[in-house]
Amino acid sequence: LPLPAPRRIKALAEDVVNKIAAGEIIVAPVHALKELIENAVDAGSTALEVLVKDGGLKLLQITDNGHGIDKEDLPILCERFTTSKLKAFEDLSSIGTYGFRGEALASISHIAHLSVTTRTKESSCAWRAYYSGGKLASPKPGQSAEPKPIAGRPGTQITVEDLFYNVPSRRRAFRSASEEYAKILELVGKYAVHCTGVSFSCKKHGDSSASISVPANASISDRIRQIHNSAVASELVTFKAENDRWGFKCEAWISNANYSAKRTTMMLFINHRSVESQVIKKSIEQTYATFLPKGGHPFVYLSLDIDPQRVDVNVHPTKREVHFLNEDEIIDIVCDEIRTSLSKVDTSRSFMTQS
Ligand code: ADP
Ligand code: MG
Q: Which atom of ligand 1 is nearest to the CA of 86?
């Protein structure tokens, strides 16, 4: 058989490349929201409001009272790799803020209608800008793409509409808005527990009351009580641990041996970023296994601060997976602390039943 003629190789158009890259970072509305929450927290906000329509596919809006964005920066805000958080590659090892690659807003602008209203302390008014494909865009045909002055309070409001409007395959993948809203509530709930000093609210468009609402001055146990339930909040133990050799500190609020649920609630923060770790989850579940009835699972909120030089945050743009040095040693220390905390509660209980 004659060999087929080779097909010529061509470069993909830039907007196609950007759309593909965006779709890899943002797979569901909750991923866009995570970036927006982290940006709001990075901006020093103490109040954060989230509004959601159709599981975030129709509308995701987040309003903060942080430092705002300088008007002069609006033209490049949504370009790829524009950031106020990282200047040199070496900074990656000491970065304290959530974002650092300047990819989130750019990605969102490629797969949704994005608008930003922002005001700094110094500015006498707010500015509103619309974006498409990484650039300033006009809100309606025939109108200018220049940011427009409007009235507004200091802080930033980001509005994301019609997510995946130009990625039909992705849009079709969503089964139900309520499933996406549940993921959004889980995420907002995690940050609302973790970010003390910040008020949070999350509301579904059209609902009269918020699904999540915590005031800025609520303590961690108040936050857990409001977002989860009082059953778990009244069975919490807390501990702190640190170790210089492995360069880490941790603070935990975990359920004691009186509490047992059908599945584990795990809220893990590494350097103030919500992350998943199957390894940590499994180890903690094993630690609990000797304290809980068969099939029982714990509630765990664990915040780890690891020396940034030991954390490899640059694994993937999503930053969902984080790796750090001496993972095993650090997990062992945390699990030892959990065991100690759980046995303390156990002894005090048997003490009481004896007396
Ligand atoms: P990164 O967070 O990695 O820098 P983003 O695309 O998420 O990249 O944001 C780009 C830049 O826009 C940030 O560096 C920040 O300067 C600015 N920014 C984004 N959201 C906000 C916000 N809510 N308040 C103030 N500045 C913001
Ligand atoms: Mg960011």
A: 4
3-state DSSP assignment of residue 131: strand
pLDDT tens for residues 79-109?
877 777 655 555 544 444 444 467 889 999 9
**Distance of alpha carbon 355 from alpha carbon 352, whole angstroms:** 5
The number of folded domains in the chain is 2
Tell me which residues have their CB closer than 6 angstroms to ligand 1.
Answer: 35, 39-40, 43, 64, 66-69, 77, 83-85, 99-106, 156
**Nearest bound ligand to the CA of residue 121:** 1
Tell me the ligand closest to 83's alpha carbon: 1
Minimum-distance ligand 1 atom for the alpha carbon of 77 = 12
DSSP result, 230-267: HHHHTTEEEEEEEETTTTEEEEEEEE-TT--BSS-EEE
pLDDT in tens, 273-303: 888 888 899 999 999 999 999 999 999 999 9
Q: What is the ipTM of this complex?
A: 0.98
What is the spatial distance between Cα 182 and Cα 13, in angstroms, rounded to a whole number? 36
Q: Which domain holds residue 100?
A: 14-214
Domain CATH code at residue 295:
3.30.230.10
Ligand nearest to the CA of 79: 1
Closest CA to 66 of 50, 99, 43, 34: 43
Token digits of residue 340: 């100690």
- Answer whether residue 354 shows pLDDT above 90: no
Check whether residue 70 and residue 188 sit in a common domain: yes
Give the pLDDT mean for 120-134: 96
Which residue has the least CA distance to atom 5 on ligand 1?
102
Question: Which residue's alpha carbon is nearest to atom 13 within ligand 1?
Answer: 83
Among 37, 285, 305, smallest CA distance to 160 is for 37
**Could you tell me if residue 80 is inside a domain?**
yes
